[in-house]
Input
Amino acid sequence: MPAPTRSRSHPSAFSSSSDSLEIRLPWWSVALPAVAFVVLFLLMADPGQAHAATDDPTVGRILEHIHLTLGR
Output
């Protein structure tokens, strides 16, 4: 037995009575880029707390291996 199909009626983003285009964005589509910008800005503004990890040479060896593999 086939499932009944329903057509959804979406409100038109373009109003035929005027030449305006209405765009609605969810709240998070504005909030997430704003939060990401603030976080990145704060990281750039205070780089004194950023330091390279020198205790573990594993990452360096992996990067060197990738570099040698791609360089050939």
Q: What stands out?
A: The mean pLDDT is 76. Helices lie at 28-45, 58-71. The chain is about 45% helix and 0% strand. The two ends are 60 Å apart (CA to CA).
